[in-house]
Amino acid sequence: MAPLSFAPIAKRADASVVTIYTVSEGESRGLFARRDRGRSAKGLGTGFIVDKDGVIVTNNHVIEGADEIVVLLSDERRFPAKVAGRDPRTDIAVVKIDGVKDLTAIPLGDSDQIDVGDWVVAIGNPFGLSHTVSAGIVSGKGRGRDDVPLDPSGYYNFLQTDASINPGNSGGPLLNLKGEVVAMNTAIRGGGAQGIGFAIPINMVKQLMPTLLKDGHVTRSALGVRIRDVRDLSPEDRAHFKLSDEKGAIIESVEPGGAAEKAKLEVGDVIVGFDGQAIDRGTLLQWLASTSGVGKTVTIRVLRAGRPFELKVTLGKLEEPKVRPQAPRPRPAPDDDDENPFGR
Predict the structure, then answer these.
(1) Is 170 part of the annotated catalytic residue set?
(2) Which one of 86, 104, 255, 335 has the lowest number of neighbouring Cβ atoms within 10 Å?
């Protein structure tokens, strides 16, 4: 049953939701370099305060490539911000503002307790319309990289919602009826789709945030395999591998010298468990393998030709590519000299 009003939730959260403005100075070259030297690209996004001393969570694509970041609080105060840490693979970033001690941190919930059909409230700055509130339900869970228009090399396990999410909402909170953040609004489906938005579960944010604050980046462990969801196999292929259901991730290739090869995992093996947790999709396996820790020994449950068994695997280190695809750019902020978000 829907509440009579979402206003109490929105009012409690309002002081913890911020607007994030960015400026990226373009590098001009060629014939018009001198003329274009003063031009810059402006971006707009949302964030939410998670610590009263100025720690703010947002999307990586909101701040990536920015030369200047300014945070606008709900009381109209502006503060320059610096990036404390960011992780392009999950599109999570943490920024920090200094010189203010009276901030209100928003409570963080447990995204594992959210069910499809639960009511949620989104707060953000769509198209520069600050602190816009919309409501809807959780429409789906476990949406992966095939479902979401983001960097295909990323790790995604999104909640899907029909709460209105538009450009400028990125990095804003998705709240449950207790006013707790259960996800971070991140993306919308293109192609004219309506009512389809995606948000990063807050438990993923909570897991990475300490590392981002400490190291500024995430060092990932690796299993050393290329996988495919069993559910994507044809009935003939499932019969060939003697698979009775669609759960698990099948190994398509094994990295030479990697953790899987050392543990004697083979192409065609189906991974159905990772350190006591059942694996139904490859996205979950990727996440667990990448966040368990370099050098950790885990127990892998495997089906080989239909026969179940377990192996011990010591995880290696994931070598990140030197050049990564650029994340989607933030929507340009209104270019109005009378309303300069960076002040004068």
Answers:
(1) yes
(2) 335
pLDDT of residue 192: 52
Q: Give me the catalytic one of 87, 91, 229, 269.
A: 91
* Bridge partners (DSSP) listed for residue 271: 249, 302
Contact present, 224 and 258 (Cβ < 8 Å): yes
CATH of range 221-317; options 2.30.42.10, 1.20.1050.10, 3.40.50.720, 2.40.50.90: 2.30.42.10
Cα–Cα distance, 160 to 166 (Å, whole number): 14
pLDDT band at residue 333 using 50, 70 and 90 as cut-offs: very low
Q: Which two tokens stand for residue 254?
A: 């094994």
Out of 111, 164, 170, 292, pick the active-site residue: 170
**pLDDT exceeds cutoff 50 at 321:** yes
For the chain, the domains span 7-105+327-339, 111-215, 221-317
Asked if the model's pLDDT at residue 144 lies above 90, the reply is no
Q: What is the pLDDT of residue 128?
A: 84
Percent of the chain with pLDDT over 90: 62
Distance CA 187, CA 198 (A): 5
Q: Catalytic residue, from 16, 61, 164, 292: name it.
A: 61
CATH class held by domain 7-105+327-339: mainly beta
Q: Residue 166: its pLDDT value, please?
A: 85
Q: Is the dihedral of CA 92, 96, 97, 102 positive or negative?
A: positive
